[in-house]
Amino acid sequence: MEAMTYTITFKVEGSKDLRVPAVPGTTLLEAAKQANLAIDAPCSGNGTCGKCRVQVLSGEVESMETRHISPEEYSQGYRLACSSTIRSDLTVAVPAGALAYQSRMKVTDLSTGREQGIFAALQEELRDLSFWGDHGLSLVGVHLKSPALDDARADRERLLWDLAEQIQSTGESIRFSLHALRRLPQVLRGADFSCTVVLRQDPDQKYTVLDIFPEAAGENAAPVLAGLAIDIGTTSVSILLVNLQTGAALAVGSAGNGQIRYGADVINRIIESTRPGGLGRLHKAVSDECIEPLIRQICHTAGLPPECIYRVVVAANTTMTHLFLGVPAEHLRLEPYVPAFFATGTLRGTDLGLRVHPDAEVEIAPSIGSYVGGDITAGAFSSMIFRKEPLSLLIDLGTNGELVFGNGEFLMACACSAGPAFEGGDISCGMRATDGAIEACTIDGQTLEPAFRIIGPEGQKPLGLCGSGLIDTIGELFHYGIINAKGRITHEGKRTFRDEWGIGGYILAFAQESESGRDIILTETDIDNFIRAKGAIFSAIRTMLTMLDFSIDAVEAVYVSGGIGSGINVKNAIRIGMFPNLPLEQYHYIGNSSLSGAYGMLMSRSATEKVLEIGRGMTYLELSSHPSYMDEFVAACFIPHTDGTLFSLDA
Amino acid sequence: MEAMTYTITFKVEGSKDLRVPAVPGTTLLEAAKQANLAIDAPCSGNGTCGKCRVQVLSGEVESMETRHISPEEYSQGYRLACSSTIRSDLTVAVPAGALAYQSRMKVTDLSTGREQGIFAALQEELRDLSFWGDHGLSLVGVHLKSPALDDARADRERLLWDLAEQIQSTGESIRFSLHALRRLPQVLRGADFSCTVVLRQDPDQKYTVLDIFPEAAGENAAPVLAGLAIDIGTTSVSILLVNLQTGAALAVGSAGNGQIRYGADVINRIIESTRPGGLGRLHKAVSDECIEPLIRQICHTAGLPPECIYRVVVAANTTMTHLFLGVPAEHLRLEPYVPAFFATGTLRGTDLGLRVHPDAEVEIAPSIGSYVGGDITAGAFSSMIFRKEPLSLLIDLGTNGELVFGNGEFLMACACSAGPAFEGGDISCGMRATDGAIEACTIDGQTLEPAFRIIGPEGQKPLGLCGSGLIDTIGELFHYGIINAKGRITHEGKRTFRDEWGIGGYILAFAQESESGRDIILTETDIDNFIRAKGAIFSAIRTMLTMLDFSIDAVEAVYVSGGIGSGINVKNAIRIGMFPNLPLEQYHYIGNSSLSGAYGMLMSRSATEKVLEIGRGMTYLELSSHPSYMDEFVAACFIPHTDGTLFSLDA
After folding, report:
1. CA distance B348 to A208
2. For a 10 Å CB count at each end of chain A, is N or C smaller?
3. Residue A367: its chain B contacts at CB < 8 A?
C-alpha cells in the first residue's frame, strides 16, 4: 500500500507558491524544509523561540498550545510551523518575518563606507607587510612562429619551448592545464600565434599554464587574474571577487547559508548530516544552492567568466568547513571533539565541483579545534594581533562567539556558548539583522520613550530587535532604571506591563507602529536569555585572562568583528557587562575578519602560510572543561556583573 | 511553422526497437546516427562500399540505384541506408551484418593462449629491464593512538605526523586527496585507528595519501592497487585492469568505439568534431558510452570499486587522443597538419571525468605527428626495438597502417594510407573481424575449392572476409593462377564469373552456404582496392628504407601488431607483395602493441619516461610529401610487385 500524502502549498510574499507532498503527521516546518523553504527556527523546532509563526489559510493541522500565539491569532489560523502536524491538504501563508533570511540581509561585505575604509586600511597593512601579490599567478606574453610543413611542432610543444626560454626554466617543469590545452589550437590561430598565457608558479619552481588568451591589443582587453575569497558563516555566506593583480575588489555578494533549513546552529546541522544522505544534502545546500549562484552573480556583475577565477580561499568555522568539503562532521560534537582535519593542504577547483577554473588552487583556512575554525585563524590574521606587542583581544560575534587573546608571543582561542541571542534566537522579538530590525535604540531619560535606527529602506517600520539593538535596548533600560541588575522590570508606566503569569515586559513598539501589526515586546524571559549570552562572553574573556594570569586591564586593544559587530554600541556593551570595561578608544571594529583574512590569504601565499602558522601555534582552550568557568559565568549573569568594580565606568 | 517529421523505427535482432523522429530528406544512415545505432559505413556514406544494406519493411524511401542491391533484393525492400532518403514514416530492419560492431568482435585482449604467451613474455622483458613496479604507489600500515580529551589532534594531522615519521619525510611534503579526507573519520574509527594507507610518492619526493582502508586482518582483505591500460582504436577500444603490485591482469574488456557512427575513419570523425557540439559528442561517444561502461564491467568482473584505480595510461592515435581529451582536432587534417599537442604531461582522473580515483595519475602516450600517435610510440616501446642493435621494422595494422623502422640508434615512423581494406572497407564482401568473418582461407590445388577458418561459434556460416582472410584468399588465388599479377580473373570454372559489365569475380561461398543467404563474392574491383592497400604498405616500407639508404635485406626483424595481425598468414602476405620477402622466422607477431605499451607505462614511471623519450626522438616521415613515394606505390600495385626480384620466395 502506498503511503497517503497531502499536498501542502506555501504562499510567500514576492515568490511563487511552493507545493510539496507530505505524509500525515509531518510538521509544517519539516514540510517547508522539503520545499527548500527556510523558515526561521533558531530554537531548532523546539517550540520555544516562536519565530516560525505561519498562518494556515485552509486545511487542518494539529498544534500544541504556545504562549507565542494569542487566542485571537489562533482563531485567525496562526500557528508555529514546528509545533503543527499536518492533517489534510493545506494552504499556508509564510510572513516575511518567519523567513530565515531575506535578500536584503545585512552582511559585512564592503557595502558601507565604513567597511570600505576598513578594507582600504587592511590593503595598506598587507602591502606594508609584503603579504601582497605573491600568489604565483602572472601573465606572460608569447609570440610564436606559425607552423609550417617544415616546422610541424604541435601547439603545446611550440608554446612550451618558447615559454621555457622566456621564464628561464625547462620544459619538464611546465605543465598544461587540460583547460588550456583544449583552448590552445583555436586561441593560437585566432591571434596569429601571439598570445597571453596565464601562468602559475608553484613554490617548488614548477609552473602550470592555466589558460591562454589572444594578446591584449586592439579589441582584446588583457585577461583578468581573478580570485575569490569566501566566508561561509553558519547563517550567511559572503564572497568577494578580487583582481589579483591590483588587489581591487571587483564585486561582492552575500546570501543566507542554504543549510539553515536543516537547523540554525552547527549542532543541528551536524545531526542532520549524519542522517542518510544528509552530508550530501548539507554540502549541496551551501555549495550548489548558495556559493554557485553567488559566483555566477558576482561574475556577471564584474563581466568575467568564472573560469577566470584562478585562486580561491575559504574561511569558515570547523563545522562549515567539514560540510562544505563533504567530510563527515559527526565527531565534532562527540567527545573528545576531534575534527577530521585542522588543515587540508591546497585543493583544486574540480575537487570541490566549484565552477571556477578547474585547476584553481583552493586554500582553506585551518581550524584549531571543533569549535574554533578557519574563520578565527583567518580573523586573527586580519586583526594582525599576531604581530603586535600589546596584548590584544579579538571578539568575533557571529552565530557563535569566539575569542582570541594574545600578541606576537602567543595566541589563545576559545569559543563561548553565547547561543543564538545575538541573532535573534531565544528572544521573542529577536531577529537577524535584516529589513525591519531595530539595530540601534536610545531611550529618552525624561519620557522613557524609545527611538530607533531601523535596517531597511526609508520609512521601514520595526519588526523586531537584532543583536546590536538588543544590547542598546537592555543597556538603556538598565541605565534608566527600568530594569534592575537581575533584568527584572522595576518601573510601571505606559510601556511596561506584567502578564497573567507574572512575567514583566517592555513594549518597544505598539501594534500600530510595527510592521507586523503586533506589539514588539521584550520580556523578562528574553532579558534572562540575553543576560546568559552576554555573561557567556564576558566570563569566557575573564576565564581565559585569569588562566593566563592577566587582569582585564592588561588588555591594550580589543578588536570586534563579525556581523553583529557592525552596528554595536560599545559603550552599551560595556554598560551591561558584556565587553570589558576599557577605554572606548581601545576598541576597534574590524568588520568581517573572516572574509578579510581570506582576502589576505588570496592575495599572498606567504599570508596563507602565516595563517597556517597561526593555526599551528594557537592554543585552544576548551572552556567547558575548565574548572573556574562555571563560577565566572554565574557571576557574569547580572547587569553588569556581581563584581561591580569591574564596570565602574561612568555611563 | 514546425518542421514536419517522420518517425523511423529501426528493428535490430536481439535489441529493442529504436524510434527516432526525422525530417523528410534525411538519409536512413543519418537517422540511424540520431538513434545512436552504428550502421557500418566504412566508405562514410558515399554509396560505394555497400555495407549499410538495410531492409525497408514499411514506408517510402527514395534511393539511388546501386550495384550492391539486385533487382530482386530491391523488390524485397533492400536499400543502402546511406543512399536512401526518408519520404514517410518507416520501419527498417537492420541485419546483423550491417552493424558496425558486435558484442563478439574479435580484439586483441589476452583472450587467447597466444595472446597470453605474448603477455607473459612482455612481463618478463619489462622486469628484466627494470621497467617494473616504479609507479610510485604503495600501501603503508599505520597504527595510531586513539584521540582523547588531552590529545584532540584532528584525524588528518594525527595520521600525517605518524606517516611522516614512518616514511622519514616531513608533514609539508604529504598531501591528502579530498577522497581520502572524506573517508578518514569513518575508516579510522571503524578500524580502531589501525589502517592501511594508499600512498603515492612523486618523483620530487612529495607524497599523496590517496585512500585509507581498515588494516588487513580477519575479514579485511588488503586493498588492491589497481591500474588501467586503455587502447583507444578508431574501431575498437580495449582496456586492461591490472594489479599494480603483482603486474597481473585482473580483467580485460573491449568494445566498439562508439564514435564509429560518426564515421569509420579519423578524417570523418574530425569533420564531425568541427560541427556545432561535435567535439562534445565525439568525446562522449568514446568516453561516456564506451570507456565508462567498460570500466564498470571489468571492475565488476574483478570485484573492485573503480575508486581503486589509482593510475591510468591511455594509448591512441593522434585523432583519438585529441577527441578523448576534448581537444579540437581539426588542424590535424589541415596543412601543415599540426596537432594541439604531442605530449600532455600527467593528468588527473577528474580532468577526464573518468570514474576512477579522482586523484589517479593519467598518462597519455605521446604522439609524434598528426598521423603517428601514442599507439605507435607505446607500440614501439612494447616491441623493444628501441633497445636492439639489429635493424627492426614494426608494422602496426589497425584501421590505419603505421610503420616504425630503426634500432637502438634511431627510429623513424610513418603512416601509410592503406585505407580501410583490411577492416573490410572498399571490399564488397569485406567485413571486420567479427562473427562470420573468414579469417583464414586455403584453396585446394586440384579442385580449386576453398576451405575456411571462420570467426564465431561452432557451425558458424561465413558472412564475408576480414583482413587476414582477404590476404589468404588473394594469395591463394594468385598462387593457383586464378588471378594474374594485375588481379584479373584468368580462369574459368564453377567458382569464377564475369558479369554484364565485364567485371570478373570469384565465388567464395554460394548463397546456400552463407550466413546471409547471398553469394559471397570477391570481384576484380575488390581485388584492385586490396592491391592498392597492400601496395601502400609495401611502398611505405620501401620509401622509408630507401630514404635511409637501406635495402629490404637490411631488416633483421619484423614485428607485426594490431588486430589484423592476429590471424595473418605471413607467408601469404609476402606472396602477394604486402610484407617484405624475409625469412619467416624473422617475423614476430606481438599482439596489440598499443595496449602492451600502455601496460608497460602503467607498471612503471621509467617506462613512461622511456615512451616520452621515444616520442621525442622518433623522426616523423610524411610520405605524401616525399618525392619517390608515388613511384614506389605504383610499382607496388601488382602481385607481388613490378620488380619480381623483390619476391623471389618459393611459395
Report:
1. 14
2. N
3. 154
| B155 and B21 together in one domain | no
CB contact under 8 A, B344 and A176: yes
| Residue A356 falls inside a structural domain | yes
Assigned domain for A379 exists: no
- Read off the pLDDT of residues A268-321 as tens digits, 9 standing for 90 and up: 999 999 999 999 999 999 999 999 999 999 999 999 999 999 999 999 999 999
Shared domain for B413 and B552, answered yes or no, is yes
Give the CATH number, domain containing residue A52. Answer: 3.10.20.30
User: Which residue do the cell numbers 558601507 mark?
Assistant: A112
Q: Of B482, B503, B530, which marks where a domain is finished?
A: B530
Please indicate, yes or no, if residue B116 is contained in any of the structural domains.
no
Name residues whose C-beta falls within 8 Å of residue A512's C-beta, 6 or more positions apart in sequence.
none
Between positions 409 and 468 of A, the ones with CB within 8 A of B are: none
The reply to whether residue B185 touches residue A330, judged by beta carbons under 8 angstroms, is yes
Q: Do B185 and A335 touch (CB under 8 A)?
A: no
Looking at the fold, whether B552 and B638 belong to one and the same domain comes out as yes
Where a domain ends, among A98, A126, A160? A98
| B148: three-class secondary structure by DSSP | strand
- Residue A2 C-alpha from the chain's centroid: 42
Q: CB–CB of A350 and B351 under 8 A? A: yes
> CB-based contact (8 Å) between B120 and chain A?
no
Q: Name residues whose C-beta falls within 8 Å of residue A453's C-beta, 6 or more positions apart in sequence.
A: A438, A439, A440, A441, A567
Asked if A442 and A429 touch (Cβ cutoff 8 Å), the reply is no
Q: For residue B612, what is the domain's CATH number? A: 3.30.420
Q: Do B271 and B319 touch, CB atoms closer than 8 A? A: no
B205 contacts on A by Cβ (under 8 Å): none
- Put simply, the answer to whether A339 touches B622 (Cβ < 8 Å) is no
First to last CA, chain B: 70
Cα–Cα distance measured from residue A544 to residue A618, given in angstroms and rounded to the nearest whole number? 13
Residues A557 and A628 in one domain: yes
Closest chain B residue to A362 measured between Cα atoms? B178
Q: What is the pLDDT of residues B122-173, one digit of tens each?
A: 999 999 999 999 999 999 999 999 999 889 999 999 999 999 999 999 989 9
ipTM exceeding 0.90, yes/no: no
Best of B144, B161, B169, B178 to mutate (most A CBs within 10 Å, chain A): B178
Count the domains in chain A.
5
Number of H helices, E strands in chain A: 17, 29
Answer for the pair A377, A614: CB distance below 8 angstroms, yes or no: yes
Could you tell me the pTM of the whole model? 0.88
Q: Which residues of B touch A342 (CB under 8 A)?
A: 153-154, 156-157
Domain co-membership, B283 together with B200: no
- Its domain, for residue A55, covers 6-98
Rounded to an integer, what is the distance from CA B470 to the centroid of its chain?
20
- Contact yes or no for A339 and B154 at CB 8 A: yes
DSSP A311-349: EEEEEE-HHHHHHHHT---GGGGSTTT--S-S----EEH
* A378 inside domain: no
Minimal CA–CA distance to A233: which of A111, A374, A117, A54?
Answer: A374
Cell of B380: 614501439
- Same domain membership, residue B442 and residue B413: no
Q: Does A342 touch chain B (CB under 8 A)?
A: yes
Closest CA to A448 of A418, A398, A483: A483
**Domain shared by B440 and B515, yes or no:** yes
For B159-187, how does the pLDDT look when each residue is reduced to its tens digit (9 = 90+)?
Answer: 999 999 999 999 899 999 999 999 999 99
B373 touches chain A (CB under 8 A): no
Provide the pLDDT confidence category of residue A103 given band limits of 50, 70 and 90: very low
* One-letter amino acid of A103: S
Please report, in angstroms and rounded to a whole number, the separation of the first and last CA atoms in chain A: 70
Specify whether A548 is located in the same domain as A415. Answer: yes
